[in-house]
Design brief:
This protein is mainly α and 237 residues long. The protein contains 10 helices and 4 strands, in the order αβαααβαααβαααβ. The chain has 3 domains: 1-64; 77-164, DNA polymerase, domain 1 (Orthogonal Bundle), CATH 1.10.150.320; 170-235, Photosystem II 12 kDa extrinsic protein (DNA polymerase, domain 1), CATH 1.10.150.320. The strands form 2 sheets. The protein has a two-stranded parallel ribbon with strand order 1-2. The protein has a two-stranded parallel sheet with strand order 3-4.
C-alpha cells in the first residue's frame, strides 16, 4: 500500500513538472514572437527613414534651373575708322565691298556723311538702306557746293547727247561677260539687283574667275530657276 502511494506521488510530481515546463515553453515562445514583431516593426521604421532620406537627398541634389537672358549688341560703325574686317559685319557688305569702302576713304581723305557711301562702286540705294542705321561719321558735313559748281560749268556736246540717249537695256549689252562686267552692267540681268550684282563680283574675285556660267549657282542670293533665266544672257569669254 505504501509503495502504491509512492508511485502515485511520483506520477503527480512528474505531471506537475511537465505542466510547468509547457507553461515556461509557451511563455518563452510568446516572448520570442513579440520580440520578432518588435524587430520587424523597428526594421520597417528604419526602412521608412532610409527611403525618406534618399528622397530628401535626391531633392537636394536636383539641379537648379537658372534662366539666362541673351543680349544682342547693336552694331554701329564709324565708317571713317572701321577696318575692312569690321565693315564685313554689315548686311550685304562682303570682303570686296569692304575693301572698296576703305579704298574710297583713303582716296578722298574721309567720308563727309554716311550718304557718301553710295558713291562707292557696288553700293546702291538698296544696300545703303540696309546699313544706314548701323553706320555713322563724326561731325557729318552736307554741302552742295560741288554740285552747284558743276551746274554752272558749260556742258559739252557729248554730255548733252548722253542725256538725251535712252539708257542701255539687256538686249543692248547681252551676252554679258560675267568675268569683266561691273555692278552697273550686271544689274541689267533678270533677278539681279545691286546687292546680287555686288555678290557676283565678290564671288568672281574669290574664284579668280568664272570657269563657266553655271558657277553663278554659288551666289547665295540666286536660286537654280533664277540662274536658268540668266544663262542665256551671260558668257565667260
Amino acid at each position: 500500500m505504501p509503495k502504491n502511494r509512492s508511485k502515485e506521488a511520483i506520477l503527480i510530481i512528474s505531471a506537475g513538472i511537465m505542466l510547468a515546463g509547457s507553461a515556461v515553453w509557451r511563455f518563452a515562445d510568446g516572448y520570442r514572437n513579440e520580440d520578432r514583431e518588435a524587430v520587424i516593426i523597428t526594421d520597417s521604421a528604419e526602412a521608412s527613414t532610409v527611403v525618406s532620406s534618399v528622397y530628401t537627398t535626391k531633392a537636394a541634389a536636383a539641379p537648379t534651373t537658372v534662366k539666362i537672358e541673351s543680349t544682342t549688341t547693336f552694331l554701329l560703325l564709324d565708317i571713317n575708322s572701321a577696318t575692312a574686317e569690321e565693315l564685313t559685319q554689315l548686311s550685304g557688305i562682303g570682303e570686296h565691298l569692304a575693301a572698296e569702302i576703305v579704298a574710297y576713304r583713303e582716296e578722298h581723305g574721309r567720308f563727309l556723311n554716311i550718304e557718301e557711301l553710295m558713291n562707292v562702286s557696288g553700293i546702291g540705294e538698296a544696300t545703303f538702306a540696309n546699313i544706314r542705321e548701323h553706320v555713322y561719321v563724326t561731325d557729318p558735313v552736307y554741302t552742295n557746293a560741288v554740285t552747284t559748281e558743276k551746274q554752272t560749268e558749260p556742258r559739252t556736246e557729248a554730255e548733252t547727247e548722253a542725256e538725251t540717249e535712252p539708257p542701255l537695256t539687256l538686249d543692248d549689252v547681252a551676252p554679258i561677260n560675267i568675268n569683266t562686267a561691273d555692278v552697273e552692267t550686271l544689274v541689267l540681268l533678270p533677278h539681279v539687283d545691286e546687292d546680287t550684282a555686288a555678290e557676283i563680283v565678290e564671288l568672281r574675285e574669290r574664284l579668280g574667275h568664272f570657269s563657266n556660267t553655271y558657277e553663278l549657282l554659288y551666289a547665295e542670293s540666286l536660286k537654280q530657276p533664277e540662274v536658268a533665266d540668266i544663262l542665256e544672257y551671260v558668257t565667260v569669254d
